[in-house]
Amino acid sequence: MDDIRIKHPSFSIAKEGLALDRKEAAGQKSFIDTLKESIDKVNEIQKTADSAVEDLAVGNTQNIHSTMIAMEKADLSFQLMMQVRNKLVSAYEEIMRMQV
To answer: What's the N-to-C CA distance of the chain in angstroms?
Structure first.
């Protein structure tokens, strides 16, 4: 199973809002890039599950176990992505409530 990990980015809070400090020159990925990669991984897992279900429905495979495992991986990865999104929205709302 693919691990979806989000590394701690270095960031600073500026007057205009949250400014991410890009460290791509030093070989580190930015938070935005890591988030995009994670979403792409979830999308690929969803596509794999869709093709497994399609193969089972068409009759190309008889292995219902691998199909169910692919569906559960897709479901869990989507749930994790939604929880991360909820935490990001909550953090953004809390930052916006801060008085500067």
So the answer is: 43
